[in-house]
Amino acid sequence: MSDTTPLPDDIDALKAMLAEARALLAERDLVIEQLKAQIDKLRRMQFGRKSEQLDRQITQLETELEDLSAARGVADMRRAHARANASTATAEAAPKEALPSHLSHEDHVLEPQPECPDCGQPMRALGEDVSEQLARVAAAFKVIRTIRRKMVCPCCHKITQPLMPGLPIERSIAHPSLLADILVSKFADHQPLYRQAQIAARDGVNLDPASTGRWVGQCEALCEPLTDALRRYTMAAFKLHADDTPIPVLAPGNKKTKTGRLWVYVRDDRRSGSTEPASVWFAYSPNRQGIHPQTHLASFKGILQADAFAGFNELFADGTVREAACWDHARRKLYDVHVRTPSQTTKEVLDMIGELYGIEASIRGSPANERLRVRQEKSKPLLAAIETWMQTTLAKLSKKSETAKAINYSLNQWNALTLYCEDGRVEISNVLAENALRCVALGRNNAQRQITRSRSLPIDAVPVAGPVPSDFRSGELRIITGTPRTEEDGLAVDIDGS
């Protein structure tokens, strides 16, 4: 209706026009509210406490800590020199951090003179003082020559010669120790191959990135039995955590990137008292279509804990896979509403959700049956109160409001959100999968198609939890594969010739 349109004299017509105008204004206000909510959310994504922002803040704080520690070290050294020059210097013991016990030790023994410097008599042992310093042996290149000598029989003239030890890559100059270092540096330390080439050049060694890239691909093929064994072990779990993240992939030929997806599947029941090793298996796909996780999880049966991605729905159709949702996602949507329009009502429900997490913290690491008992006793009444609040609040809201959308997100998957109160092995959130993807963020900008196609990543993608063996970087690449006709994953295949 135009502002210049004459108003009718009829009261009923005026009332109808007024009602229509009010409806238009209410709809306009709703659109404005939605736009403001989207802008606030985008601002928090850009300037808020997201993981990337936190990473940068942590880096800044770590740099500041390094500077302050260096300044403190300078002051300590000057004080030490001052005490050494003073005639009445007193020793001031500085606290020392215990050194790791698994490191090898090299003893430098300092013996005093065997005779007394005053009377010349033989000295007797009295004791010893031991001090320890942490040393590092710098990595160095060396050439390993394998010399196979020949022998000939003087009688029958038979010639013998030892066989050449097997190498991971035949007819290659790359020793297993070099391959191991390249793989660890690229996948665990996020050093792209061209940077590794620059580091090697400082030692006068030419590592062509094209050659090292080919070696990485060949090692990927060699490790396929390991990734297959890792996949089988991970998928054999009763409960699985799943998530995905975008990853830039170099498109062949045009030097541009496109967006692929990296899927992560986590087997980890240590929070419910299990002693089984945790494992993480990664899978790459060129897009986020549901067929990819459906293919990855084709043989899985049990409980799948993930976000509300529609691509998983096909897996839940026949009941062999049950859905467990993530309270982190449900809480975040309510929190976004509370940040923009804080109210006592939203604060109360966020406090109740916080109590749920407090209960989980108190039973973390307990056996599954104990966790289930506590959840039935404490968490279930809280969940009932939260559901009642959501139903009551929803009845008072417009269906298009942001608060209604946040509430409907939880109510639409309420059974999946409350499944953890039916099984002590299930978690309240999918944080295990999200944490497993943190290693990807560090090397996201260095992704290459050849690498992201790989189905697993080192360090996080290992079936055994614990530190990397001390001899791994020095060259032993060992593949663990499933032994035929057995149920154990126990066949060890050395690819370093040992």
The strand count comes to 9
Radius of gyration: 32 Å
Mean pLDDT, rounded to whole units? 79
Main pleated-sheet profile: 5 strands, mixed
The side-by-side strand order for the widest beta sheet comes to 5-4-3-6-7
Please state the structural category: alpha/beta
Q: What order do the SSEs take from the amino end to the carboxyl end, as H and E?
A: HHEEHHHHEEEHEEHHHHHHHHEE
Describe the structure.
There is one protein chain. The protein is α/β, with parallel strands linked by helices. It is built from 15 helices and 9 strands. The chain has helices at 11-47, 51-85, 176-188, 193-201, 209-222, 224-235, 291-296, 327-340, 344-363, 368-394, 402-411, 414-417, 431-436, 438-442, 449-452; strands at residues 151-152, 159-160, 239-250, 257-267, 279-285, 302-305, 321-324, 478-481, 491-494. The strands form 3 sheets. Strands 5-4-3-6-7 form a 5-stranded mixed sheet. Strand 3 and strand 4 form a beta hairpin. Helix 8 (327-340) runs antiparallel to helix 9 (344-363), helix 8 (327-340) runs antiparallel to helix 11 and helix 10 (368-394) packs antiparallel against helix 11.
